[in-house]
Amino acid sequence: MKIVKFAYFDEFQCTGSECPDSCCKHWHICVNKKEYLDYKNKECSPKLRSVIDTAFKINGDSYVSYAEMRLKENGDCPFLGKDSLCMLQKEKGEDALVFTCGIFPRLNANVGEMAVRQSCSATCCHVTEILMKHPEGLRIVEEEYDGKNKYINSGMYSSNAIKRQWQAYPFYWNILNAEIDILQDRAFSIPERMLILGYFCQKADEYTENNAPHKIPSLANMLTDKELCKKIADSLKPSQSDDSAAIKSMEILVKMHRRIQTVGSGQPKTLFMQVMEQLNCNLKETNDKTIVDFNKTEYERLCGVFRRIENERTYIIENLLVNLAFSCDPQQGIWANYFTLAVFYNTLKTCAPVFLTENYDEKELAVALTYAVKMVINTKLAEQGTFNDFIKENKCTLPYAAFLIC
What is the rounded distance in angstroms from the CA atom of residue 324 to the CA atom of residue 379? Predict the structure, then answer.
């Protein structure tokens, strides 16, 4: 079996108490029935036992989500000690952690039982820090599996498997490699790359839906022509005023904000609230539609901060987009994943600067970018329910995505 991963994958090591945005805070962790019973029967110190006895809330809905960690009032995990370290891991070792805690932020996906795709989620601040340290771009490596990963050996994966039954399965690597190549083509600006990628994903999705995924490799090969790609990007650049662009960006954020109120909890809600307050965003109801009112001057200032980051260190935005594209599940729709990337870019542009001070340092920038990642990933845009929200309003189109990007 092959392992296909980013070269940086082996660089990751949890920073523990030094992490500025700990995953031991605000996260609602579900445990399966076996994990729950193992905790209840675990031999441990009286201090740890007292925590275990009150740490879980039983859901009983299914074997997989049998129980849930009962967070403290401040959002901390019940096992998080005063030293900002996990009491359970300190006393019983890393093997005592539940699956979610043990594997995060690593993302393992089985690809047709012949390969495992490995990356890390930038919802972890240290992963974002690593991405910021690779100006040369992200490199993909392939190696033989050494048989040492306990989760892979147990068939436990943190991302959906790419199944052989998927119509475009024979062309999965063609799709993924083409997406990465487009996003890493530094002959074009980031917005231009996103427009070219949109063209590819729209066509690839159409081919798959029309039982013609065999056309995808030729499409990918065609888009190695830089002159053609330039024409595609130029043709897709929208003609819009700054006000029109701002309104479309804010409409998407408001929709995400509303969604997180019903399907999410904890930190993402707080992050969206901070953005909405910073932009003084309000909704005005009229007879036939809802109008988004916001501080356009502040919106333009925030976008200006982002553009400076993008112009001075383009590779950071590139790496964030590549990292997300690599870990997406195309079975939910090649186009759905692209639209998620477009919304992610818009969120970076508008929201990440909200979390920066005037004289921010590298740590603060990593945290701000991580917050923007969370705001998109935790609204589960590519999942059918959320994606349909955009489809119903005829906004899930390449021209609309271009409005968000440019």
Answer: 14
Count of Cβ atoms closer than 10 Å to residue 193 Cβ: 24
The candidate with the shortest Cα–Cα distance to 14, out of 177, 125, 115, 107, is 125
**pLDDT 10s digits, 179-196:** 999 999 999 999 999 999
Distance of alpha carbon 378 from alpha carbon 256, whole angstroms: 10
Query: Alpha carbon 117 to chain centroid distance?
Result: 16
Cα separation, 97 vs 151, in Å, equals 12
Peptide bond into 105 cis (omega under 30): yes
Rg of the chain over all Cα atoms, to the nearest angstrom: 22
Edge-to-edge strands, sheet with 67-69: 30-31, 67-69, 56-58
pTM: 0.91
Residue 388 pLDDT grade (very low, low, confident, very high; cuts 50, 70, 90): low
Question: Contact at 8 Å (CB) between 375 and 268?
Answer: yes
Pairing mode, strands 140-144 and 2-6: antiparallel
CA distance 88 to 81: 9
Paired residues of 4 in beta bridges: 117, 142
